[in-house]
Amino acid sequence: MDEDGKITDGEECEEPTPEPRPFNKDRLVLYHWTQSFTSQKVRLVINEKGLVCEERDVSMPLQEHKEPWFMRLNLGEEVPVLLHGETIISDYNQIIDYMEKTFVGDTVAQLVPEVDSPLHERVQQYRRLLDELPMDAYTHGCILHPELTADSMIPKYATAEIRRHLANAATELMKLDHEEPQLTEPYLSKQKKLMAKILDHDNVNYLKKILGELAMVLDQVEAELEKRKLEYQGQKCELWLCGPEFTLADVCLGALLHRLKFLGLSKKYWEDGSRANLQSFFVRVQKRYAFRKVLGDIHTTLLSAVLPNAFRMVKKKPPSFFGASFLMGSLGGMGYFAYWYLKKKYM
Question: For residue 142, which of 131, 129, 155, 130 has the smallest C-alpha distance?
Fold first, then answer.
């Protein structure tokens, strides 16, 4: 085990033990995966609030979320998971609400206005609206149907690789059932449901439908941003989705636009000039320190996702392909291809 709690040779099933230190009831530890959309939003909130937090990367392509040490933290096998002293929180929305309630004060940014504030319901409304968007369907669908995107950051090899795994999915499940008898029926059932879900995302008509619904949501956001311009016309202040203060709604919107840009949907939804307020928002939000720290350069997103996994694969035997991150997991073996793709396109 290295000092960052990463797993080394022969320790695949052991709980990572960080460098010994005195117990601190205020100590924050976040278990996450860098490319997990909900993990990204939690990390953005942590950095916007200026909190000191240890981050432990749980590689979903390497299926570290299925190792016993992590399952003791979260039986749901999902990231993110937040530890605060002896408190463990493993639900994305609960993590956000916990941090807003627990970490307050003059020096800590408040991302959700007080309940009695006129802005509270507006922020919560857009939080719900944006969080309910089917991001996994957008991600899987755009990878499988690149013809619906423009300037996607994902190499064509990813689509071919994913389709190959989908074609062999039934065989892989039968092999798992035969070679891993210790796996429970709920586990195999979960994999079958996941496979069915991804096959749904491969339906181009379904994808066009949800992308059309996404356009309507972005129209609503565009109109809301226009309201802010009119509401504060003539005043010297930076305007965000719900007002002059940066809120959780802006975190959700910024993370959404970053992912849509990565998938190759930005030209379709705002870079064509159809939503000028959205374009302006995206330019401004990318300049924020928290966004630069957590999300980095959009052009190197894929490279930053695959290279760490490529190095870690050398240290341990890669697990079964199936996991909670079925499609994005397949990107873990593409470090070589991602490097040359990005070098050709951006360097």
Answer: 155
